[in-house]
């Protein structure tokens, strides 16, 4: 094979290899973020969804889901890829409470009055306490 043809084939192969890695380079820089969600009386809120909405978000979603102790870990969803953590920035937070055992709704979503900030470090801990919804 002539040297020019070998270099062309090598160049095309490298271009395809680089294109395959482009999505990893486009992932946002995220930082570990976790917390707890409880009612002000101390009772943990189980199976709730926390939606973090930032001004810089475009094609991504940042959310967390509470476990049996009210703990959550934020994740960033980009396309169909989940990345543990959240990009740094200020976020409006909306909480969707779970349905009860009778499958009645947990009420309208609750938007926190104050923005929460994810710092460019891995020590982001949010302890959130909200009023119990009226039934």
General description of the model:
- It is a single chain.
- This protein has one domain: Immunoglobulins (Immunoglobulin-like).
- A hairpin with a 5-residue loop joins strand 2 and strand 3 (60-65).
- Mean pLDDT is 82; it is low at 3-22.
- The protein is built from 1 helix and 10 strands.
- The relative contact order is 0.22.
- The longest helix is centred in the N-terminal third of the chain and has 23 residues, at 3-25.
- Strands 2, 3, 5, 6, 7, 8 and 9 form a 7-stranded antiparallel beta sheet that branches. A 3-stranded mixed beta sheet has the order 4-1-10, with no helix packed on it.
- It is globular.
- With 135 residues, it is of the alpha+beta class.
Task: Map the helices and strands.
Blueprint: H1 3-25, E1 33-39, E2 49-54, E3 60-65, E4 71-73, E5 75-78, E6 81-84, E7 89-96, E8 110-111, E9 116-118, E10 124-130
Parallel strand pairs: 1-10
Antiparallel strand pairs: 1-4, 2-3, 2-7, 3-5, 5-6, 7-8, 7-9
Summarize the structure.
The protein has one domain: Immunoglobulin-like.
> How many independent structural domains?
1
Structural class: alpha+beta
Mean pLDDT: 82
CATH architecture descriptor name: Sandwich
| Major pleated sheet | 7 strands, antiparallel
């Amino acid at each position: 094979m002539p040297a020019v043809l070998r270099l062309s084939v090598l160049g095309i192969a490298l271009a395809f290899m680089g294109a395959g890695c482009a999505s990893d380079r486009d992932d946002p820089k995220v930082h570990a973020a976790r917390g707890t969600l409880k009612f002000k009386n101390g009772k943990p809120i189980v199976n709730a969804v926390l939606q973090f909405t930032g001004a810089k978000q475009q094609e991504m979603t940042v959310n967390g889901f509470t476990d049996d102790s009210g703990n959550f870990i934020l994740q960033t969803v980009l396309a169909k890829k989940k990345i543990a953590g959240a990009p740094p920035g200020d976020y409006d937070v909306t909480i969707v409470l779970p349905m009860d055992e009778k499958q009645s709704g947990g009420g309208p979503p609750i938007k926190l009055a104050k923005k929460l900030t994810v710092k460019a470090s891995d020590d982001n801990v949010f302890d959130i306490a909200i009023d119990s919804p009226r039934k």
